[in-house]
Write a structure and sequence with these properties.
By secondary structure, the protein is of the alpha/beta class. The protein is 29% helix and 26% strand. The chain has one domain: Aminopeptidase (3-Layer(aba) Sandwich). The strands form two sheets. Strands 1-3-2-4-9-7-8 form a seven-stranded mixed β-sheet, with helices on both faces. It is globular, with a radius of gyration of 20 Å. It holds the Pfam family Peptidase_M28. Residues 41-174 form the Peptidase M28 domain. This is Peptidase M28 domain-containing protein. InterPro entries: Peptidase_M28 (IPR007484).
């Protein structure tokens, strides 16, 4: 791995200015600690009336204490759990599994472990819905981020299943979710860039959303 550090926009502009003047020698000291730890996925379930499952997930870790990544994703999953818990079991056509995974910042190891460890369940998952990063668009002004009244652009990765694509498109229009982009799962590589991309690689149909520009 190549060590790296975050720079503010103003520090980055200053660094580019110095580099533009010719050869520059600099020293960056980054104090960090690496250790092995145990982290956990958090799982909740609601029974339905069949042996098929729908998974609704997000990741619960982030690079810092962040409302967007991914406290907002956790909030969306919890909202789904609250809603469906109020629907009688006989009206829930599928079992529901609410999955908050760990290790997103370590290559999505929490989601990958869940997929690898639950092969029998994976075969009975008819849809995985992943909810990440809901945010307002911000603009830079005098070194500060100023929220606007617009949402960040919403990316929706949807499996190439015509009926599923139509349902998602109709829902976006009915709910007036402007600034939404429908993308095939492989639009930005071999899988969506969400933490739930491992479900796509395992052949599970998906609807996964995240905001761009974070």
């Amino acid at each position: 791995p190549i060590p790296g550090v975050y720079l503010s926009k103003s520090d980055g502009e200053r660094l580019k200015e110095l580099m533009g003047q010719g050869a520059v020698r600099a020293k960056i000291v980054a104090k960090s600690k690496t250790e092995k730890v145990t982290t956990h996925n958090v799982i909740g379930t609601l029974p339905g009336v069949s042996d098929e499952w729908i998974v609704i997930g997000s990741h619960h870790d982030g690079p810092w204490a962040s409302a967007v990544e991914d406290a907002s994703g956790i909030a969306m999953v919890l909202a789904q759990a609250k809603y469906w818990s109020q629907v009688p079991q006989e009206e829930r056509p599928h079992n529901l599994l609410f999955l908050l995974t760990s290790g997103h910042m370590a290559g999505g190891v929490g989601c990958q472990a869940f997929v690898n460890d639950n092969a029998e369940l994976i075969d009975r998952i008819v849809l995985e819905i992943h909810l990440e990063h809901t945010a307002r668009e911000c603009r830079g002004e005098d070194g500060r981020l100023i929220p606007t009244d617009q949402p960040e652009i919403r990316w929706w990765w949807v499996s190439k299943i015509t009926e599923l694509e139509d349902v998602v498109e109709d829902a976006i229009q009915v709910e007036d979710l402007r600034r939404s982009l429908l993308l095939p799962p492989d639009a930005l590589g071999g899988r969506p860039t969400t933490d739930g991309g491992h479900f796509h690689l395992a052949g599970v149909p998906i609807v996964q959303r995240a905001n761009s520009g974070l």
